Amino acid sequence: MGIVTPGFRGRPRSSGPDLPPGQYLTHDFPVLSAGPTPRVPMDRWEFVITTETSRAHRWTWADMMALPSETPTVDIHCVTKWSKLGTTWQGVSLDTLMSDVDTAADYALVQSYGGYTTNLPLTDLLDGQAWLAYKFDGEDLHPEHGGPARMLIPHLYFWKSAKWVRGIQLRFDNEPGFWETAGYHDYGDPWREQRYQGD
């Protein structure tokens, strides 16, 4: 005697891609920004990681280009509900940038040219989870998408992947960033649909 009732086939499997809840698939790359696009001359661009003891680790654009790069292919998910799958980037792993940084901090406040900030646990920048990206689809990252360089943290909603990045402040406390102060979720896991505070 069978253990499955005749005619029962269960829930049909989706033939579409596996997306976080509430997301729809796009093949475009929408441009969303909170303000004007900063234009940073390459000879004045720098990236600075500042520890909780105020020690600064600095890289010029030439320094950054001399570091080993990676080409991750990842899915990205925007809090405005679009997802873009299989995007290919080039950039420097945060593991590489943090390799000589001595810190006991628990949190990072990412800072951008133009004043934008976003916060996240430091552990979310490490272990192959985050990059400082400067190419998209084999081309230099366009300014409207965060060029010359942006954070790439694909396991969180895309507002955490700050555009026009200029540095990271390492902290013991979790200071909310721009959108987090405005009511967006402090962490922003798309698979848990953490869009706003209280989600």
UniProtKB/TrEMBL annotation:
InterPro entries: OxRdtase_Mopterin-bd_dom (IPR000572), OxRdtase_Mopterin-bd_sf (IPR036374). It holds the Pfam family Oxidored_molyb. Gene3D superfamilies: Oxidoreductase, molybdopterin-binding domain. CDD domains: arch_bact_SO_family_Moco. Residues 1-21 are annotated as: Disordered. Residues 35-179 form the Oxidoreductase molybdopterin-binding domain. This is Molybdopterin-binding protein.
